[in-house]
Every structure is written in structure tokens, then in C-alpha cells.
Amino acid sequence: MAPTICVEASGRAFDVAIIGAGVVGCALARRFTLDGARVVILEKAADVLDGASKANSAILHTGFDAPVGTLEADCIAAGHAEYREIHARLGLPLIETGALVIAWTEAEEARLPALMEAARQNGVPVAPLTAAETYALEPALGPGVRASFRVAAESIIDPWSAPHAYLLQAFLNGATLCRATEVTGGTYEDGGWTLATRRGDLRASVVINAAGLYGDLVDRQLLGEASFQIRPRKGQFVVYDKPAASLAAHILLPVPTETTKGVVVCQTAWGNLLVGPTAEEQDDRANAPLDGAVLHGLRQKAETILPALAGHEVNAVYAGLRPATEEKNYRINRVADRAYVSVGGIRSTGLSAALGLAQHVAELVRPFAPQMVPLADPVWPTVPNISESAPRDYEAPGNCGIVCHCELVTRREVEAALSGPLAAQSVAGLKRRTRVLMGRCQGFYCSAELARITEGRLSEPMVPPHG
Ligand SMILES: Cc1cc2nc3c(=O)[nH]c(=O)nc-3n(C[C@H](O)[C@H](O)[C@H](O)COP(=O)(O)OP(=O)(O)OC[C@H]3O[C@@H](n4cnc5c(N)ncnc54)[C@H](O)[C@@H]3O)c2cc1C
Q1: How far apart are the first and last CA of the chain?
Q2: Which helix (H) or strand (E) holds 252?
Q3: 275 vs 129: CA distance, rounded Å
Q4: How many CA atoms lie within 13 A of 385 on its CB side?
Q5: Relative to the CA of 26, which ligand 1 atom is closest?
Q6: pTM: predicted TM-score of the whole model, two decimal places
Q7: What is the distance between the alpha carbons of residues 448 and 223, in angstroms, rounded to a whole number?
Q8: Closest to 253 (Cα-Cα) out of 275, 268, 226
Q9: Is 350's C-beta closer than 6 angstroms to any atom of ligand 1?
Q10: Distance between CA atoms of 330 and 228, rounded to whole angstroms?
Q11: Is the CB of 213 under 6 A from ligand 1?
Q12: Nearest Cα to Cα of residue 188 among 400, 443, 368, 394
């Protein structure tokens, strides 16, 4: 029997097909749905946020250090502004710590005025600080600070609730999501696309490629050529246990270089302290192996910045892959005669820029779809809070008890994540909706119970440690 496209999409024609449910695809789905399009999102993995978007630093950047006058700078500014506008309505955290860009050497100090000027040109207010003023704000900093500047609007968010909320809002306003549906090719004829997927064909007027680390391959499959080449750039992180979070009130940034923002030290929305990421080029698009020596180096670096970290335990380590290309800028390519837009190379600022990118791409697509009428009264859902910036479910009555004691995740939260319109389909998806298995024990205590709760409800059964 021929494979079938997901049942919700079967037999339907769509205005816009979005390939890839990373943060960019989720934001695009929301924007186009609110603008009145019939939208389908096609994701090859068992669950959403399975690519670059699963492992970032979760900073809502202002774009103070983005190259002046670029599309990236514009999209970060627009994305940051829209996130601030909608976050409370969708139930999303915004932890307004501000950031300090710290110079530790004479050469770095000499670069601060130019960086502050670039920030002002990007419309981001910054305030210079002497070494004494810097230590007054961050007393745990190690010796050697020469000067810094403060970027008040840099904030910490939760990397997963935002894209989940964008997708949920799209879904509740009529969008269709097909998971485990890899796009393998397509043809454009008679003013529309027939997309081939591993589960059958689908019709759409406009196609948007938001395939992240596979963006160039998808362009080749659909257009026969790609205008950019993905060069995955790995970032490894060390996560310190919760008591360390009090050591840094701000996001502590180094003076950036041409290729990287450098190693950041900051709190997380889960109440930990994060150190990273590295910037390591590799060919593999799928795997981001951890390297003990590099992680040790990160710890040493972190303990130079905050010496008191030496007495703190590490909770977890992880790595993500940025969809970098051979150029620094975003690679947005519109092919007007085939109603196609490639949203490629959303390298290291996509969480912050996603809503702005969606605004930009919607404008690019408008000439292909003049008939779209924005929804008059869209649904505004809220997503469950999993950050430490607001009350958690374990504090509320009727939560059916705690399943994950390290991260204080309740049975009610797990059940909610396994049901509803965007129910988790994989263990990783469940983690990203609830924080289960992410704490100090990394699942040692709770995975047996979770395996029982999730039995028959995930695309692949959970295998608890020790059988
Ligand atoms: C180490 C690191 C730190 C970062 N820190 C920050 C930060 O602090 N702030 C910030 O704003 N940004 C940060 N970023 C950047 C941000 O995470 C990325 O810009 C963003 O995740 C890119 O999202 P995307 O949707 O373009 O790609 P992805 O998340 O990779 O999504 C693409 C999706 O397409 C799917 N797909 C691929 N091929 C196909 C196909 N043929 N058919 C169907 N589906 C397909 C994939 O499975 C995937 O789910 C960081 C990134 C990394 C790696």
C-alpha cells in the first residue's frame, strides 16, 4: 500500500507549505496563519524542534552586535520587539537580566567604543561602565576586568516554549502539522507546487524552505540548485547546578570576534548557570558529539570569569549545531517565478529573530498570495509555564504528584504534554515540553516511571536505564 500523507493534510490544497518545524518554521506558521493563509508545516523528525532549535543559549538578543544595516539586524530588532509585545499573552517567560560586555585585556577595552557605537546605530541603548562599576554590579567576577558596557534589554527566555507557543497558535487558528513527514522533492507547474514527501504528495501554492541544517539540500531537491552551503558549527555547553545561578545577575558576554559571540556565562530560565557555546566547524549535520577536553576548557574559562564556580557541581553538558553557511549573513532567497522562498543560514540568532524573520518573509510572499485576509479575531492560547520566572505546577493543587524530583515536574504536566493538539511524540519532545529527565540525576530516578506513563503513547517506546 502507498504511504499516506498525515490524515489532516490528506486531499487538501494549501496556500503555504513550510518545510521544517524549528523555531523559524514555527514562527512562519504562526505569521502566515494569522495573515489568513491555509498553512501546512512538514517536519521530518518524529517531533518538532529536532534540529538547531533544540540546543541553543536561549538569549533573546537585542542585536546590539549584529552587523549594522543588515537583514539580520532588522529581523532581530523586529523579533525582539514582537516577542516583548506578545510574550505575556502567550504565557512566555522574559527574564530581563540585561547583559554586560566585559573587556579583560587592553585590546578588548580598545574595542568597546566601536561596539557601543555599532549598538547605537542598531538602535540599542548601551551604558559604559568602569571596572569599579562593573564589580559593583557583579561582585563574583574574577580579577582583571578593565571596563564593560551594559545592554539593558538583553534577556533570557525559554528556548522551547516560544516555538511551541507560535506553533500552537498557528494550529488553533487552522494550520496543519505533519510530523515524521520528510520532504524529498517537488515540482512547480500550473501555478502551484506538488511536494513529494516520504508519506505521499501534497499541493501548495507557495513553498517556504525553513529546513535549518538541511536548507541547502532541500533547495537542491526542489530547485535543482542552492544559493548557499550549510557548514554546521557546533556549540558545546556546560550547565552548572542551581546554586551557581546566583553568581551572575547579568548575561556576561566577552568582547565578540568576527566569527563568534564567544563564551557566555548566564542564568537559564530553569534556574541553572550556563557556560558556552564553543564555535567548532564540522561536516556532520546530525550529530554534535561532546568532547571532554573542550568541556574541561569551558569550565576553566568559566572559573576565570567567576572563580567561585570552582566550588560548584556541573549538572549537565550538551551541544547544538548552528546552520551556518560560507557567509555571515542570513541567506533569504526568493524565487519569484516558482513561488518559493528559502530561509537559510539562520546561524546563531534565530531564536531572537524568528518573529522578525516571519514578518519579513510574509512581505516577500505577499505578491504570490494577494487574496489572503488576516484573521479578524484569532485565538490566543497560553502554553504551560516551565520556567522558574513564574509559579510552577508543583506549587498548584491537583497536580497528581511529582514525577521528576530534580526539575519538579508533575504527573499533570507530563499528562498534558502527552495529550492535546501538539502532544509530544518522542522522549526528546516530552523533555522539551516539561523539563523531565533534564535535572541532576539525568533520568536515573524518574525514567522507569516515565516509561510506564508513556507506554504506547510515543513513536518509539522509552527504554528506562537498567531494563
Ligand atoms: C550553540 C547555539 C547557541 C545559540 N544561541 C542562540 C541564542 O542564545 N539566541 C538566539 O537567538 N539564537 C541562538 N542560536 C541560534 C538558533 O538556535 C538558530 O538560529 C535556530 O535554531 C535556527 O532555527 P531553524 O528553524 O532555522 O532551523 P532548525 O531548528 O534546524 O529547524 C529545521 C527543521 O527542519 C527539519 N527538516 C530538515 N529537512 C527537512 C525535510 N527535508 N523535510 C521536512 N523537515 C525537514 C529539521 O528536522 C528541523 O526540525 C544558537 C544556536 C546554537 C546551535
Answers
A1: 36
A2: strand 251-254
A3: 23
A4: 18
A5: 25
A6: 0.96
A7: 47
A8: 275
A9: yes
A10: 10
A11: yes
A12: 368
Residue 259 pLDDT exceeds 90: no
Q: Give the H/E segment covering residue 410.
A: strand 409-410
Residue nearest to atom 27 of ligand 1 (CA): 212
Q: What angle do CA 379, 382, 383 make, to 5 degrees?
A: 130
- Grid cell 491537583 in the structure block, residue: 398
C-alpha dihedral, 33 to 39 to 45 to 48, nearest 10°: 10
The grid cell for 344 is: 537559510
Q: Is 63 in the pocket of ligand 1 (CB under 6 A)?
A: no
Dist. CA 358–CA 353, nearest whole Å: 9
Ligand 1 atom with the shortest distance to the CA of 183? 42
Cα 344 to ligand 1 centre (Å): 10
* Rounded Cα–Cα distance for residues 353 and 330 (Å): 11
Nearest to 157 by CA among 92, 107, 207, 106: 92
CA of 367 to the centre of ligand 1 (A): 27
Greatest CA separation for the chain: 72
Residue of the CA atom closest to atom 26 of ligand 1: 212
Q: Which three cell numbers stand for residue 331?
A: 541567506
The beta strand positions in 61-103, using DSSP E, are: 99-103
Beta carbons within 10 angstroms of residue 389's beta carbon: 16
Name the residue of 43, 48, 348 whose CB sits within 8 Å of the most ligand 1 atoms, as the mutation to test its pocket.
348
Structure-block grid coordinates of residue 379: 485565538
Q: What is the CA radius of gyration of the chain?
A: 22
Distance (angstroms) between ligand 1 centre and the Cα of 378 equals: 27
Q: Is 234 a pocket residue for ligand 1 (Cβ < 6 Å)? A: no
pLDDT digits (tens, 9 = 90+) for 126-177: 999 999 999 999 999 999 999 999 999 999 999 999 999 999 999 999 999 9
From atom 18 of ligand 1, which residue's Cα is the shortest distance away?
Answer: 350
Pair 342, 219: CB distance under 8 Å = yes
How high is the pLDDT of residue 160? 97
